[in-house]
Amino acid sequence: MSHEFFHAVDPGRARSNNEDAVAIDIGQGLAVLADGMGGYNAGEVASGMATAFVCNELGRWLAEAGPNASATDLRQAVKACVDDANHAIFSAALANPLYAGMGTTLVVAVLREHGLWLGHVGDSRAYRWRDGELLQLTRDHSLLQEQIDAGLISPALAASSPHRNLVTRALGVEPSVALEIRRHDARPGDTYLLCSDGLTDMLADAAIGRMLQSHDALFKTGQAMIDAANLAGGRDNISLILIRVQGGRARRRRWWRFWR
After folding, report:
1. How far is the C-alpha of 69 from the C-alpha of 61, rounded, in Å?
2. Model's pTM, two decimal places?
């Protein structure tokens, strides 16, 4: 399988700084997205460290391991790279008072011949668009999701809850982090969306699905999502990565980038 990418980062309408970050290794089918948190510029430091560290370290491992790396080895490599990134961010926060308490969400996708591997920490998400259906593949590590799971609040009320941005896991806030990682089948024609909550807080899943349905080109889809999130208020930074799976090894990998 071959694949094409599009990624975009936008500050939104309410914030002057950007604490989201993305990184891509096209050759290794690797995409990383993070949404930072912390005072001063600590959030953007944490997200930048996370994306750069995981993309560089995991990309290097994937290149050395080659396409025949086992599923077990790949799972362990993703976990090890995220653990190393967590340690680096946590150590930086301890060493510099300006970075105290910084952390970041993380979602990482690896496309290989035996499927798509998704790892995540926090409430940045991954979705799959297949045969006209949008499916959320990750489950938020958040206080709100725990309340929904416990039956304390309905999904409908959750959309307006004041606690929707309180995460229960983040990279860099503790010496260790629990990465949730799962393998999913990947088929030609699939489109995968990785995004921060700056997108999903502004747009319902149905609206995201309509944009995936309406636009064929990835850059048009991504740009439409950014514009719609800003039109809805743009209360947070907005970042996204779109990945389309194509059939056949002969197709060239293509990518687009859209910055504001």
Report:
1. 10
2. 0.90
